[in-house]
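Justification of resources, computational component.

The compute hours requested in this renewal are based largely on the per-chain cost of generating structure records like the one below. Each record pairs the submitted sequence with a full structure-token output. That output is archived, and it is also reused by downstream analysis tasks.
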Amino acid sequence: MTARILQNPWRLLLAINAAVIVGVFVHKIQLPPYVPYVHLLVDYHFGFIKRALIGAIVALFVAKVPAWLVFALGGAAWLLTLALYAKLFQKTFGFTAKTLPLFVLIAGSPFFLKNFMHTLGHFDIYGCALAIVLLLMPASSLLFVATAALFSITLVLIHHIHLLMYVPTIITIVVTRHYLVHGITRTNVGFGLVALLSVTILFFAAQFLGTMPIPEADFVAYLKTRMVDSSRTDLLQFSYIWYQPLAKEISDTWARLPHNILGVPVFALLIWLHAPLWRYFAKLIGALASETHRRLVIAALIGVSLAYLVMFAMVFDYSRWISNWAVCMFLILHAVKMLPASKEAALISEEDRKTNILGLIITLIPRVGIVRPF
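The structure output for this chain reads:
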């Protein structure tokens, strides 16, 4: 066992990552489940409301919502995402000694599963999980495009910011797996445009028509009827977000910008630590058999990044946004690997000393955070 670890230290890094995730989980369950708990209380009792789908589903099963349900549902979503990603990696690369560095750099990244553990109960992970499902399922028919549209609608109903967070990545997956591989026809283009228009209309409806229609005091009183312990009014301190207009969100974000922007160098450093992974991604794009495919992939990466730039200007949870941006890059990497290639891109070397050092550093970083780094 020791000899195998010394021969391939990436096995040890994988074990360390598992221990770090356990530590992050223990720390997380000691924190109050503020925002995620409120999301489990809000449903469609007063009509169409933004950010209410998860709460409405919970209301079908329980009349009173215990605080521990945040961690139970969040933990189940995390375990499902881990299983889905393991299946995806197996499908795309396979689990061998040569692919282990790639797996550790992605799955062990502080941007990915470790940060999803830190943000347990938040809605980000649902976009990742549904995008992985699209990478796993067959993509030859319009059923694939319809499923992507359904997933996008679901995500916007969970939280409308998914239109910028994971819907662009879902679009990229649909284009790379269906349109680039199986061709473009009038039927599938028309179907795709109608689906995209439907998701966009739903987003604007949620953003501008999904505000709570009753006074906040009445809303809070209703939320208390959904709580197991209605005396925990501290858990309702974020109920105001169902009343906050877009202009106020942008104003708050820009007011905090001078302080939050100080984290940008840290984000840049964290991204640089993944340099071996980005170099491999560039090799994958360069190895594509079609120049058109290469250009479209690069355009998609720019488009997804621009969507996150818009998010940075609107909502100040910067650590979450940069982490989810990286996750989107990881998922698009898998989509690119599924495209026809003219040659095989060389995998990340498990013997390169610099790569080993960067892998160790990435492994030891427990998570990125929610607003500011760490």
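Residues 15 and 363 are 10 Å apart (CA to CA). Residues 68-92 form the longest helix (25 residues).
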